[in-house]
Amino acid sequence: MASRRVWLFLGGVLVAVAASVVTYDTTAGNVLYFATYAVLCAVAWRAVARTAPGPRRRLWALVAVAQTLWLTGDVIEIVYYYLSSVPPVGLADAFWLAGYPVLAVALTRMAARRAPGRMRAAVLDGLTLAVAAALASWQFLIQPILGAGYSPAETVVPALYPVADIVLLTAVLFIALSPGDRRAPTRLLLAAVTLYLLIDVGYNVLPEFLDYAIVARIGPLIMLGNALIIAAGLHPDRAELTLPGHQMNVLHPSRVLFLGLAFLTAPTLSVVQSGLHGNAVMALVATALSTAFVLSRFTIAVREQEKAQAQLAFQARHDPLTGLANRAVLTAELDRVTSGPVAVLYLDLDGFKGVNDEFGHEAGDLVLTTVAERLSGAVRGTDLVVRLGGDEFVLLCPGLPEAEAIGLAERVLDEVARPIVFRGVTLDLGASVGIAAYGPDEVAADGDMLRTADHAMYQAKRQGRGRWVLAGSR
């Protein structure tokens, strides 16, 4: 689904949710609520169906299962509402609670797939923050329920919701703290889980200040959270959630701040519970200072390590002569292309061997670096310029229609043919370009795109230097 249609989908859901809040606890409101929820579940399963079979589809299927479980719980409760009375604890709670671990498994597996072998830091930091949140949840949400004198079922089941929230929080922290791209799909996913947590906390806290009839109206907001997750699955960049990302795991200042707050959670809660007497306050201040010093030293050490890792990562992903991306980067980016339009231009220099033979490798290096600069200047900021090796280059252009790909090929031929002067001698060079262009409804495997463009390039070379050939997309 195109990005614009995703935002239109969210806008429509937002209107329906607002109407459900206004008409809450009326027959018309119930009809609107369940009609909207049913549509959301149908769209979630549609997102599963349009995902290629394999692990990615299974992950999105888990997301759809979680949505369906929550909807089933709502259906059971509304049946109770109209046929008898809604019990404090019942079968609906089983379906609602079951949705949390299912969604948490999906999120955890997404984090593992987007950062394979690089999850250790995210897991440790996520668990640190989750333990702090669990401690606060225990003191303010769970413990008051346990001591309220309810029946065993009415005590245990409500206490399970904060536990489920912590499980979901832990899973989303794994995604938030793991290395990888963070475009719209990731932000939509994080916004959805944040909204879920705020709603559940609101159900537990707001009744202390507001009438429950008012608090109950926040219920339809859950559908907005569901819509945010579904929108992430429909977004054209959704692959960033389930494919390895190239972004390094950099220690953001906010991460250090949150870790510091997590370390101070236990002593702060102890002071609040025991009272703000002098010794307790001094101990808390000393703990805060020690934590600040330790985290500062930790940050300095991590920054030094990050610089070394960044240099090694750049060397592993870039051509040492031209600074362009290498074949490994191209392979990864081709994996991320799930739909068109997209164009691949395969470029081979004409006359390069003669330059190397006559003037030496110094002249050849000058040609390659000059061509690399010209190609980088000819493309858009979203395009990828790659040196495969020797005198072969590839341009990967997502979102580029066929007509514009042809125009780009003509500009590339003009740029490469411009004079290159080496020690007062003008080097005579050209290029042959093969184009593989795919439309909005066409999808090709990553290797097929490159092979098709390569084959078209050889056709251009056979026709004579300075030519481009457009291959079919099939």
Automatic annotation (TrEMBL):
SMART domains: GGDEF (SM00267)
Keyword Calcium: no
Chain ranges passing through the membrane: 28-48, 60-82, 94-112, 124-146, 158-176, 188-206, 212-235, 256-274, 280-300
InterPro entries, alphabetized: DGC-Regulatory_Protein, GGDEF_dom, Nucleotide_cyclase, Rev_trsase/Diguanyl_cyclase
GGDEF domain boundaries: 340-473
Record keywords: Membrane, Transmembrane, Transmembrane helix
Keyword Transmembrane helix listed: yes
Domain of life: Bacteria
Cross-referenced Pfam families: GGDEF
Signal peptide extent: none
Protein name from the UniProt record: GGDEF domain-containing protein
